[in-house]
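Handover notes (outgoing to incoming on-call)

Open items:
1. EVE domain-containing protein: sequence verified, structure written out, both below. Nothing else pending on this one.
2. Nothing else urgent.
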Amino acid sequence: MNHWLMKSEPDVFSIDQLAKDKTTWWEGVRNYQARNYMMNDMKVGDLVLFYHSNAEPSGVAGIAKVSKVAEPDKLQFDKKSEYFDEKATKDKPRWFCVEVQFVSKFKHIVSLQDLRENPKLADMMVLAKGSRLSVQPVEKKHFDIVSKLGG
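EVE domain-containing protein structure tokens:
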């Protein structure tokens, strides 16, 4: 099993919305590295740290898991969507997304500041200078520490 961190702005899609909906396709990712992680590396059952970005505070709000492997992101074909890609075709889609399922919401958000202040998390990708990937791998040891911090 692999472990991941996936970012979403809570005013766009939050852990509470995932809890209500139970599952969602992680649509709208338009970064090739993040897409490749979803398309090539994420497997059903992989656990995900659900991270609220551009929030007060930003941080990990809970846990999800991959419930379906990557499929073409339908938004790339929707001309009304901000994620429309005129170069994508049904025969040659460019963008893929996985489905994630709600697991749990943390008792309190593990803030970005909390992550930075924990020396055992110093080498987490999310803390690397310039790291802005919305989908990124997480080492199991880091996943376990963050999960414990979240209660």
